[in-house]
Amino acid sequence: MPEFALTGLAFLVFTLDLFLPERSKEWLAGLSVLGLIGVGAIALLMLPGRNVELYGGLLAVDGFGLFFKVFFLAIGIGIIAIALEYGKARLQHRGEFYGLLLFSILGMNLMAMSRELLTAYIALELLSFSLYVLVAYGLREARSNEAGIKYIIIGALSSAVMLYGLSNIYAALGTTYFSGIAAALSSPATDNPVLWVGLALLIVGLGFKLSAVPFHMWAPDAYEGAPLPVTAYLAIGSKAAAFALTLRLLAEAVAPAGDRWADWQLVIAVLSAVTMLVGNLVALAQSNLKRLMAYSSIGHVGYTLAGIAVLGDDFALAAKAVIFYLVVYAITNLIVFAGLASYYNSTGKDNIADLAGLADRQPFTAAVLAIGLFSLAGLPIFAGFTAKFYLFAAVADGGFLWLAGVAIFSSLVSLYYYLQVLRQIYIEPAAPESGTEGDAAAEHGGGHHDAEPEQDSLPVPMLPRPSITLSATMGVGVLAVIWLGIYPAPLLAVIEFASSAILPMG
Amino acid sequence: MLLVLFAIRREQEELAKRVTFIVTLIPLLIAVFLFINYDRSDSGHQFEENMMWIKAFNIHYHVGIDGLSVTLVLLTALLGPICVLASWKIEKGIKAYLALFLLLETGMIGFFCALDMFLFYVFFELTLLPMYFLIGVWGGPRREYAAIKFFLYTLFGSVLMLIAMIAVYLKGDTFDIPTLIELAKTPGHALAERTFQIWAFLGFFIGFAVKVPIFPFHTWLPDAHVEAPTAISVILAGILLKMGTYGLVRVNFAMLPEGMDFFCNGEGRWGNSLAILGFINIVYGSLCALAQTDFKKLVAYSSIGHMGFVLIGLAARNESGLTGAILQMFNHGVISAMLFLLVGVVYDRAHHREINGFGGLGSKMPIYTGITTLAFMASLGLPGLSGFVGEALSLLGAYSKFKVLTILSTAGIVIGAAYFLWTLQRVFLGELNPKYEAITEINGREIATLVPLGILTIVLGIWPSIAIDMFREAVSILPLVQ
C-alpha cells in the first residue's frame, strides 16, 4: 500500500540524513521528490476502482482517498520545490525538514482515508506534530521559535478539546465509526445533551485546525514566524487535509442524519460568514506579507466552509465545489508563495512595502504574483473565479443565498488588499537603496539615499532570476491557474469520481 | 462571431507598435464584413456559435450578434486601430501596454457578442483587469487613486450583478440569454414573477449603473478619465460606458420587463425613477462640465450628460426612445472618442489641460481648431451632425411618457452649448497666449485618428438610416410599450 511506501521513504530520508554531509543535504530533497512521485505512481496503479475498507473499517481505500492522496503528494512536491533554495540558505538540519514533511504528508493521507473518529484524530496529530516542529524550524530566528510555541500550545489545546468531544460522542452514541454515527444520529432516541456537546467540541477542534474564526488567533503569528516554505505548507497542506477530513466526516457521519444535520448547517453557515468577514476585513490592515497571506487564507477557509455548510445526501454539488475550490486554492497559493519565496531568497524582506517596483526588477516574479493574487481575488479567466463561482452557485442552490451574498462581498473586500500588494509591485517605483542580498548591480554612492529629486535617473537594481525549481513551479502553476479558469472540465470530471465515493448521489 | 485576440510575444518596440496596429485592423475588417453581410431584416441572432463549456451548470460558449451587438462591435473594432495609433507616443513598457490593450479589446468585443450570462459576466469583468493596469501604470499623477477607485467601484457593481445573476439562474435553470428572455415572458414561470424581477432588476441595474455611469454612481469617472492616458480615455468613454447601457438594454430591458415596467411606467412611487435619473445625469452632468477648468474633466462630465440621454430614451420604452438611445450610444462613442483625442493633441504639446491657460490657439493651429469645432458642434447636438439625431429621437420618445422631465432635460442641451462654446472661445479664439507662439499644428498621425470619426459624424448626421437599419429589427422584438 502506498502509505507503507511513504513511511519507508520517510524513514529512509531520516536515516540518510544521519550520514550525509551538510552540503549534500539537497540530495535528500531530490530523493523525497522522487519518492513522492513513486508513491503517487503506486497509488495510481493500485488503487483506482477499488473501494474497500481496511482494518475492519478504520480506513477506506476509495476514490476520495485516492484523489486526496495524489493531491497531497503533489502539494508535497510543490513545497519541496519552494523549500529547496530557501533551505540551502537559511535552515539547519535540512534532511530532517524533508523527513518531517514526508511524515506530515503521511498524516494527511491518513486523514483523508479515515472512517473512524480516533483514526482521524491520530492522523491529525501526526500532521500537527510534524507541523509544530516545522514551524519552529528557523532556529536562530526569535519569531520562528515564538510562532512554534504559540502553535504548539494552541494546537495541543485544540487537540484536547477535540478528544473530549470525541469521547462525548462515543459516550452518547456508543460508536466512533462514521457509518455508525450516521445510523445512530438518524434514530431519535439518541437526542442527548452529551451528544450536542460532543459535536460542538468536535467542530471547535476542527475549527482550530482550519483556522476558522473565532479559533484563528494562532494563524497570523504562526504564518508570520514560520519559515516561508512552512507558511506555504500551513496555508495549503494542513488546510486541505483538515477540509478533506471534515468533508468525509460530515458527508458520511452527519449529513445522512437529515434534519439533525439541518440544525448544524446553520451553525456552520454562521461560522463561515464570520470567518470570511473577519479574515478579509482584518487583512486590510496588514503590512507584513506573511500575515496578509494568513488572513487571506482565513478568508478562503470561510468560503470553503460555506460550501461545507450546504452538504447533503441529495446534494453532492457542494462536495465537488469544495474539492474544486481546494485544488484551485492550493495551486494559486503555491504560485503566490513561490513568488514570495523567490523574492525573499533574493532580498530577505517580507513586508508589503518592500515589494515596491518589483515589476521593473523582476518582471517574471511580478507577473506570477499578479496572476496568483488576481486569481485569489476571484477575477474571471483565472481559476479563482471559476472556483468561487462554482462554490457560490452551489451555496445559493443549497438554499443559503444570503451566505453566497456575504461571500461575494467578502471577495470584493479581498480584492482591495490584493490590489495594495499589486500596487506596490507595479505602480510604486523601486526604492533606490543599497545592495540587496545577491544583487549584482551595486548601488553608486555607497548605499546612501541619493538626494536627487529625479528617481528615474538612479539605476534600478535588478533582482536575479528565480531558481530553476521556483521558476518551473511558478510556470506550471500559472498555466494551471489559467487553464483551470477557462476549461475546468477535466479536473471536474476527476473530482466527480472522488466525491461520488463519499456522497453516492454523485 | 467572436474574435479572439491574444497578446503576441514581441521583441522590439517599433515592431510591436506596427504589429499591433495591423492586428487591430483584423477585427475591423471582420466588422466591416459583418456590416455588409448582416441581414437587416432578421431580428434574431446571426453568426452564432454555441458550444458546451461547463456541464455542471449548463454553461455554454454561446456567442452571436444581433442588431444591438453588431452596432457596438463595429464601434469597438473601429476604435481599436485608432487607439493604437493614438498610443504611438507612449514611452515606457509599450509591449505590456499593447498586450493589455488587446486583452481589453477582446473583453469588449466578447462582451457584446456573449449570449450566455456566465460568459457575459466573465467578459464584463475581464475588461477591468487591463483597465486597472493601463490607468495605474501609464496614467497621470493621481493614477493609482483613480485606478483603484475605478476597479473597486466597478467591481462592487458587478458583484451585485453576480448575485442577481445567480438568483436568475436558480429560477431559470439556465444561463442562456435568449432562453432566459423567453422564459421571462412566459406567464406563470418563476422568472416572470414581478417581485422577483424587481429585485433582480435592481441588482443588475446597480451593476450597470456604475459602468454607464448613472448618478450617484458616477464619481469614479472624472478621476479615471483625467488620469488615464489619452487612448485609454477614448476606450473608456467610447466603449466601456456603452457596456453599461448595452447591459441595461440586453438584460434589464429584454430579460426583466416587469422589473423595468415597475421603474419606468410613470405610476407609483418608483415609476419615474429611471427617467429622473436620466434627467439628473443630463442636467447635473452638464452643469458640472460648465464649472470645469480642466479640459479632460469637462469632456468627462459631458459624457455623463450624454449618457443621460441614453437613459431617458431607454426609460421611455417606445420605439423612438429605444432607437434614439441606441443611436446615441454609437454616436456618443464616436464623438467622445474624437473629443478625447483632441484633448490629447493639445496636452501632448502643452503638457497641461487648463482651459484658461490657453488662448487664441486658432491662429497657430487652424486645422486642429476646425476639427475641434466639428467635434464640439456634434457633441452639443447641432442638427446635421450625428449627435443631434440620437438626442432628438431619445427626447422625442421620452416626451410621450415623461413630458415634464423631457422638457426640463432640454436645458441640458442649452448648458452643453454653453460650456462647449465657452471652451471654444477660451482656448481657440481671441488673443494668442504668448506661451504658445511655437506650438505645432496637428500632425498626420493625429489627423488619421480623427478623420474616420469625423466622417462618421457627418455621414450619420445626414443619413442616420445606415446605422438605424442595423438595429431596427432587433429593437422591434424588445418588449416595447408604445
UniProtKB/TrEMBL annotation, chain A:
Region (Disordered): 434-456
Record-listed E.C. numbers: 7.1.1.2
Chain ranges of the NADH:quinone oxidoreductase/Mrp antiporter transmembrane domain: 114-412
Bilayer topology term: Multi-pass membrane protein
GO MF assignments: NADH dehydrogenase (ubiquinone) activity
UniProt-annotated location(s): Membrane
Main location per the UniProt record: membrane
Biological process according to GO: ATP synthesis coupled electron transport
A Pfam family hit: Proton_antipo_M
Transmembrane segments: 6-21, 28-46, 66-84, 96-114, 120-139, 151-173, 193-218, 230-251, 263-285, 292-311, 323-344, 364-387, 399-419, 468-487
EC class (word): translocase
Composition-biased stretches (Basic and acidic residues): 441-452
Domain of life where this protein originates: Eukaryota
GO cellular component, one term: membrane
Keyword list, A-Z: Membrane, Transmembrane, Transmembrane helix
Catalytic activity field: a ubiquinone + NADH + 5 H(+)(in) = a ubiquinol + NAD(+) + 4 H(+)(out)
Protein name: NADH:ubiquinone reductase (H(+)-translocating)
The organism of origin for this protein: Geodia barretti (Barrett's horny sponge)
TrEMBL record, chain B:
Swiss-Prot/TrEMBL GO biological process terms: ATP synthesis coupled electron transport; electron transport coupled proton transport
A Pfam match: Proton_antipo_M
Subcellular localization(s) per the UniProt record: Membrane
InterPro entries the UniProt entry points to: NADH_Q_OxRdtase_chainM/4, NADH_UbQ_OxRdtase, ND/Mrp_TM
Enzyme class: translocase
UniProt keyword annotation of Hydrolase present: no
Annotated protein name in UniProt: NADH-ubiquinone oxidoreductase chain 4
Recorded catalytic activity of this chain's protein: a ubiquinone + NADH + 5 H(+)(in) = a ubiquinol + NAD(+) + 4 H(+)(out)
Keyword Membrane: yes
One Gene Ontology MF term: ubiquinone binding
Its membrane topology: Multi-pass membrane protein
GO CC annotation terms, alphabetical: membrane
Domain NADH:quinone oxidoreductase/Mrp antiporter transmembrane: 114-410
